[in-house]
Design the sequence.
């Protein structure tokens, strides 16, 4: 028993009368992994058994479907290629592999059961589309060592993942319950979900080992999918002919202790800034004044109580505020010093207005830096064109090999650049 391709012209126009029955897949939604073929057109074989696929019947196969012809519970032929196929009881298996050539060919050779007397003949379909939206959630917090916080933290993750059936023959043999008519992913997912969550913990631990901060886990769905594939796909492909396609994390939450540690670390990082500390201190004083003003026993009693408290804690708060101010002054001095060093490293020039500058324009009057290809800059910063500095009177430094012509021009070549006289 097998299948052969049916002529397209023979099945067009409402199907020719020569076909006994026509089979199509039953209801197959985006969560369906397996369904039975149903007769959509009954032929003249009224005496035939309902569990028999008559010789000459036509089977329809659509995109992303894998059809199996089963005789007595044994797979005798299959196809993963869309089209119309005629059942031929005298034919050898045709085995239309489609894109699944290597995977299903090997599995068929290992799992085929042909040659036995038929008791039931069925047409089955397996969904080759990506099965999406399978929900997951960690029952217990997963440990995660974060190098940034230098602490062992614990998180919970919730989201969805998707699978794809890559070897439908193996999937049928190992994952589909016997005598099932239609199977949704939820019907068989309990075991797979437990294995998924175990692999998820391994993948998250690997992300921790790779140094990814815990706060980035929620945005690492694509990377997590790759971790999951490395952890789980080998086993799932080998045992059941399916694999993980994608993992989407909807939310990541921390247990109470981890939340406290993260908040403490973040607060400490903020308070290491003296400006933040001083603002926090001043805000604390302001809140105290506000509370004293709304004292149930009267504002005067509140302020008196606050005065007593302030006397007790005033020295400590004053010392803290002084330390904050000192550190802020040190930071400011350090920034000014660094800026000064940076400015000193830049070449300077003196504008006609008297301002000394290092940029292309004067910081006082906005005049551009003068272009003086024949001028020279004195060590005091003054730009000159004569033999002596107009500011401090220092002589113009002579270049090596330079000579002065009788006309007064300083030259470096063999002839004077002013009057053309040769060098002596």
Sequence:
């Amino acid at each position: 028993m097998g299948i052969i391709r049916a002529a397209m012209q023979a099945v067009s126009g409402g199907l020719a009368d020569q076909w006994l029955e026509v089979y199509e897949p039953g209801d197959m939604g985006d969560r369906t992994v397996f369904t039975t073929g149903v007769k959509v057109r009954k032929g003249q074989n009224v005496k035939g058994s309902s569990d028999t696929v008559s010789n000459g019947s036509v089977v329809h196969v659509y995109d992303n479907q894998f059809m199996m012809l089963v005789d007595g519970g044994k797979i005798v032929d299959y196809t993963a290629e869309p089209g119309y196929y005629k059942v031929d009881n005298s034919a050898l298996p045709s085995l239309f592999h489609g894109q699944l050539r290597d995977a299903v060919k090997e599995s068929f050779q290992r799992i085929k059961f042909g040659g036995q007397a038929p008791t039931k003949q069925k047409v089955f379909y397996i969904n080759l589309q990506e099965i999406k939206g399978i929900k997951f959630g960690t029952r217990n917090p997963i440990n995660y060592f974060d190098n940034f916080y230098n602490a062992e933290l614990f998180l919970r993750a919730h989201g969805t993942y998707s699978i794809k059936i890559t070897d439908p023959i193996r999937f049928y043999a190992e994952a589909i319950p016997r005598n099932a008519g239609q199977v949704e992913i939820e019907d068989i997912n309990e075991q797979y979900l437990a294995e998924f969550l175990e692999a998820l913990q391994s993948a998250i631990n690997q992300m921790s080992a790779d140094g990814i901060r815990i706060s980035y886990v929620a945005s690492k769905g694509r990377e997590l999918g790759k971790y999951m594939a490395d952890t789980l796909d080998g086993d799932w492909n080998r045992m059941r002919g399916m694999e993980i396609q994608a993992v989407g994390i909807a939310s990541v939450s921390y247990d109470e202790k981890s939340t406290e540690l993260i908040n403490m670390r973040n607060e400490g990082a903020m308070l290491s800034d003296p400006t933040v500390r001083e603002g926090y201190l001043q805000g604390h004083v302001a809140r105290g004044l506000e509370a004293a003003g709304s004292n149930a026993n009267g504002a005067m009693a509140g302020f008196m109580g606050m005065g007593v408290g302030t006397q007790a804690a005033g020295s400590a708060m004053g010392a803290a505020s002084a330390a904050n101010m000192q550190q802020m002054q040190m930071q400011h001095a350090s920034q000014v010093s660094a800026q000064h060093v940076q400015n000193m490293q830049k070449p300077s020039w003196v504008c006609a207005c008297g301002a000394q500058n290092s940029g292309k324009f004067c910081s006082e009057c906005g005049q551009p830096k003068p272009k003086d290809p024949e001028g020279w800059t004195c060590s005091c910063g003054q730009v000159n064109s004569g033999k002596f500095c107009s500011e401090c009177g220092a002589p113009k430094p002579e270049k090596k090999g330079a000579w002065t012509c009788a006309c007064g021009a300083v030259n470096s070549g063999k002839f004077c650049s002013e009057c053309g006289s040769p060098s002596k």
In short: Residues 346 and 358 are 6 Å apart (CA to CA). The first strand starts at residue 2 and ends at 5. Residues 299-345 form the longest helix (47 residues). DSSP finds eight helices and 19 strands in the chain.
